[in-house]
Amino acid sequence: MIPVSLTDVGSYLPAHSVDTSFYTGDEAPPADGVMFGPPARRRHAAPHETATHMAVEAARPVLERRRALGEDRVDVVLTNVALPDRAFTGAGADIVARLGLDPVPEWIIDVHNSGCASFVYLMKLGRSLIASGQARTALICCVQNMAGQLFARPEVRGRKHAAVPGDGCGVGFLSAGDASPVLDLVTYHGVEYANDMTLAVDTRKYWEPGEGEIDIGFTESRVKQIVARGNRLVPQVTSELCARLDTPTSDIDVLITNQPNRMFLSNWHTELGLKPERHLDTFDQYGNLFGAGIPVTLAQARDEGRITKGDLLVLSGFAHAGDFAAAAAVRW
Fold first, then answer.
1. Element (H, E) at 228
2. What share of the chain is helix, strand, coil (3-state, %, to 5)?
3. pLDDT by residue (tens digit) across 186-241?
4. Which of 27, 194, 311, 314 is 20 to 30 A away from residue 325, measured at CA?
5. What is the pTM of this model?
6. Sign of the CA dihedral 232, 237, 241, 243?
7. In CATH terms, are 4-178 and 183-331 the same topology?
8. Which residues in 263-291 are b (16+ Cβ under 10 Å) and which e?
9. Are 42 and 167 in contact, with CB atoms under 8 Å apart?
10. How far apart are CA 250 and CA 227, in angstroms?
11. Cα dihedral sign for 247, 248, 253, 257?
């Protein structure tokens, strides 16, 4: 099998930074340890900052670096967008057009499931195509664009969960070769939980006209179930991955997960036997970036020199109400 490496990462974060008072006014935010304890700040995409715009801005510097190293072709483009704003085609084709990729990649795949763990899932798809000899390179784009468009709306922003997400985009580049090899990946599908996270729009379908604004449909009982699953799933897939590598979880040099809240972040590294400094945390800077959280945190860590050559890097996360989880190991 052809070895595949994660050779580059990049990110784009909207300029507009929002503090918690935008949501809570003069009221104190919820306690830190709960599911919806808000970050200190988060970014909101402006009206012109579509999913395509954010992906292109994140990808351009990565592609320029790859071209300087002789990789001037992209064979695969994989995307995940939290709130699709290209209803029929997905974002992939528009991203390819705006980046001016020539020739047009043979594989343009818009993946709508896998949510907060989408970066790892797209790594698995890209790795499979490259390892099979059907491609040499893959561009992965994960966009979170719900904070400024959905959770900032007047009827929604006062609800306790609205202050947690932020907007941003993270991208990754996969290449054939062993420069920074993807050692293994583990995925989990909790299909029985697929309907536990829904859109709440009274009795209508979300595209039908009506007076109530669209929101995420949380109930107290479901939140408790999601907390239990989230606490379990990330250590589960991470431990399975390390077992396959015959490596104890305590030997992970750098763990990067999705960034849902402080409670999960603390519980995950404690369960895995890792010191907090090995589990990178961008929650208070950017909030919950959904699928963009892993690549944005990774790109920042790379730029700040927090990952060194030879490190065992593990990327791990769970999605939605626990319907998906995944982990990947990379020798940086």
1. helix 220-244
2. 35, 25, 40
3. 999 999 988 888 777 777 888 888 887 888 876 666 788 888 999 999 999 999 99
4. 311
5. 0.96
6. positive
7. yes
8. bbbebbbebbebeeebbbbbbebbbbbbb
9. yes
10. 24
11. positive
The domain locations on the chain are: 4-178, 183-331
> How far is 279 from 231, CA to CA, in rounded Å?
15
CATH of region 4-178: 3.40.47.10
The residue type at 188: Y
The pair of three-digit structure tokens given for residue 272, joined into one six-digit string? 């895995």
Cα–Cα distance, 11 to 59 (Å, whole number): 8
What tokens does 32 get?
A: 């830190």
Is residue 323 exposed (0-12), middle (13-18) or buried (19+ Cβ within 10 Å)?
A: buried
- Does domain 183-331 fall into CATH 3.30.300.20? no
- Which class for 108: exposed (0-12), middle (13-18), buried (19 or more C-beta within 10 A)? buried
